[in-house]
Structures are given as C-alpha cells and as structure tokens.
Amino acid sequence: MPGTEDTDRTKRLAIALVDSYVRKDRDLLAQTAAEAAADTEGTVSELKVFAAFLSRRVEETGVVWKPADSRDAVAATVADMLPPEVEFAVITAWEAYAVGEEAAAERLSNGDPAVYLHMLAAFSAAVGQAVYKPAELISTLRIATGTAD
C-alpha cells in the first residue's frame, strides 16, 4: 500500500504530464515521463481519474465533445511532442479507447504503459482546455487532488 507521500508524488507527476502538454514543453514532458516510469500504473490510474473528471466537467458546461473531437484534440496535443512512432501509437490507441474499445487500445499500444500515460495526459490537457484556461486547468487539478500548495 503506497504511503501518502508516494500518492502525492504520483498525483504531482500526473499533473506535470498534463501541464507539459498544456505548455507544449517537450523537455518537461520527457523528464516527467521518465520520472513517472517508476510508477506507471499509479500515474495511469491518476490520469484516468483526471480524464473522467474533466469529461464530466465538459458535459456539465454543455461544451459538445464527441469521440472525433477527442481524436483530433489528442492528435493535435501530441503533435511534435513525442517521437513519431510513439505519437502514432498514442493517436491510434486513443482512437480505440475513446470509443470504448479498451482491448483494441491495449493491443494497439503493444502493452506499452507509456502509450497510456501519454494518451491520457494529452486527452486531459485537450479536454481540460475546452473548459478552462491553461493555468486554471492545472490549478483545478491541484485543488481536486489535494496537492495545491
């Protein structure tokens, strides 16, 4: 059972991944993804929570957000942020994941947990910016996770 310190670190890493996509900061993305590799499962879990939270937030505001919109948004978000082969894997796996085809997404990702890290962080950055300004999005995630300083 991870301790509170580990849980907070995982939440902060997940937020930093989203933030790196929001800022379009490739160096921060690479550094944070490398740190998150120590607890990919925990970070992916946090990112799934963010994705669900932000999806609900979009629904509550009435912003129309369809699977095709999310596919285009994830593709635009990861563009030039990842090596081409990872970018392609993220976009392809997200297309399946966005329509509920999780088994296909798993197959398309070749079981690489980094693909899930990137697709969920990119989606959270994209969908979050549909309802929040960039700084407001990151602040909201910090408040929602209890990691606001």
Keywords:
149 residues, mainly alpha, 8 helices, globular
Topology:
Blueprint: H1 4-23, H2 26-36, H3 40-61, H4 67-78, H5 84-98, H6 102-108, H7 113-128, H8 134-145
Weakly predicted, low-confidence segments: none
The major beta sheet can be summarized as: none
Shape from CA axes?
A: globular
Rounded mean pLDDT is 91
Helix content: over 70%
Oligomeric state, counting identical vs distinct chains: single chain
How large is the share of residues in beta strands? Answer: under 5%
Query: What's the number of extended β-strand segments?
Result: 0
Could you tell me the radius of gyration in angstroms? 14 Å
Total domains, how many?
Answer: 1
Distance between the termini: 24 Å
How many DSSP helices? 8
Class from helix and strand fractions: mainly alpha
Order of helices and strands: HHHHHHHH
What does this structure look like?
- It contains 8 helices and no strands.
- It has 149 residues and is mainly α.
- The radius of gyration is 14 Å and the shape is globular.
Give a brief outline of the structure.
The chain is mainly alpha-helical.
